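User: tokens in, sequence out, please.
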């Protein structure tokens, strides 16, 4: 290869700067170029070409979770006051299964987001490293070209040879050609690095898009878990209210029908035990996901209001009630008597006895006595102030000396037809219990 003059080198350098110029292919030098190219190749494998979330609808785990979510939403619509024990257990099972399924999907989505975010960061780092390599190669190429153009390489080599020696001239030419080849090789490496940078940038953009998609999916799944927790807590709160009312009712019935009183208490205790397990599971999942606990009971700092007080009570035909319903009760009893039904029963129940039970079963703090859910006490005990009996606004009726225990009885039939006109309404599931609001 002939040695070019200074002008030739100048043309060589100018051509290398043109955007459409491509240097002749030459073997690449080992080193940083190969290492960064290898990194880009690994990233290409990490960043999947299939969009994140594709095929998720076909994932068996996701399908099962969707079925459980639908079952939980149906279970949350259960009328807890009217529901039988088996129905309540089934509803709690559905809610617990939904919680477990949504927790699993939320954890999986969070991990996928973390991995995608890490891959995006690695891709950006590789892009930046490639850009830094290009800057270095550009500097090297400019320096080599400048040295050739200024004749520094030739003069430097020539200084080592005797003047006028033909052999030394040939040696100088050979060494100069090596220097020119080095310049071409440097520009070739620069061109390859620029192509690699384009690939790195594409991979980085794809990785970031995947990370964004995974982040959106993780947020959506976290919302699903929050909804599952809310559904469970809502039903649990309703069941606590039911247990409160039924346990208070059982205590009120003790003097009228001891067997029925014990039957109700035992049933509610079994429900409370199953409810406690669900509450513990929901609380654990909520604790593992801060900020997701919603829909639960908002407990106040004070005690529930007990409307009836000693000075507001009246006794009508042996039944003590709040004075506000005394006349209505008298009218109801007299109307029943004219139809051949002798009504009696229990009305107001002092809360002091219930407070003592709570202190014994639940604890001695103000929270234990007034606010702790009945299901959290051992054995379960209703919160004071939650019963219409404690307000003097509910009555458990006897008819002709026996508790009204059947919806098919003649006395219940008369009550159903006539009691509402006096302001009394039956509580679902309890033929004997009538109050001003049906609770």
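Assistant: Sequence out:
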């Amino acid at each position: 290869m002939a040695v070019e003059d200074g002008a030739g080198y100048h043309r060589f350098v100018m051509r290398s700067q043109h955007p459409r110029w491509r240097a002749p292919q030459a073997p690449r030098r080992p080193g940083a170029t190969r290492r960064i190219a290898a990194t880009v190749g690994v990233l290409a494998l990490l960043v999947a070409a299939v969009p994140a979330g594709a095929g998720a609808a076909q994932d068996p785990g996701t399908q099962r979770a969707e079925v459980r979510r639908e079952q939980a939403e149906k279970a949350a619509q259960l009328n807890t006051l009217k529901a039988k024990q088996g129905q309540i257990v089934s509803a709690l099972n559905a809610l617990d299964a939904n919680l477990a399924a949504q927790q699993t999907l939320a954890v999986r989505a969070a991990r996928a987001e973390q991995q995608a975010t890490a891959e995006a960061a690695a891709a950006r780092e590789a892009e930046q490293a490639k850009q830094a390599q290009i800057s270095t190669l550009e500097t090297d190429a400019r320096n080599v070209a400048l040295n050739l153009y200024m004749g520094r390489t030739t003069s430097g080599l020539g200084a080592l040879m005797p003047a006028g020696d033909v052999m030394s001239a040939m040696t100088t030419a050979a060494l100069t050609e090596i220097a020119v080849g080095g310049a071409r090789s440097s520009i070739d490496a620069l061109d390859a690095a620029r192509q690699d940078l384009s690939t790195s940038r594409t991979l980085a953009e794809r990785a970031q898009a995947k990370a964004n998609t995974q982040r959106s999916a993780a947020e959506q799944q976290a919302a699903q878990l929050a909804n599952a927790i809310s559904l469970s807590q809502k039903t649990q709160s309703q069941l606590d209210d039911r247990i409160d009312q039924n346990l208070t009712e059982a205590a009120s019935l003790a003097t009228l029908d001891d067997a029925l009183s014990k039957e109700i208490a035992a049933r509610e205790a079994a429900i409370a035990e199953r409810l406690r397990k669900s509450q513990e599971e929901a609380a654990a999942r909520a604790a593992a996901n801060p900020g997701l606990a919603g829909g639960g009971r908002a407990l106040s700092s004070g005690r529930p209001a007990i409307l009836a007080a000693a000075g507001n009570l009246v006794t009508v035909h042996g039944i003590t009630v709040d004075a506000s319903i005394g006349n209505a009760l008298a009218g109801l009893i007299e109307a029943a008597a004219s139809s051949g039904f002798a009504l009696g029963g229990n009305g107001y129940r002092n809360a002091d006895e219930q407070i003592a039970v709570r202190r014994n079963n639940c604890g001695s703090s103000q929270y234990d006595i007034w606010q702790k859910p009945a299901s959290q006490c051992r054995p379960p005990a209703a919160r004071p102030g939650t019963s219409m009996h404690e307000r003097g606004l509910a009555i458990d009726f006897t008819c002709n000396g026996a508790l009204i225990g059947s919806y098919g009885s003649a006395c219940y039939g008369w009550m159903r037809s006539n009691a509402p006109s006096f302001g009394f309404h039956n509580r679902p599931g309890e033929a004997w219990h009538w109050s001003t609001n049906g609770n």
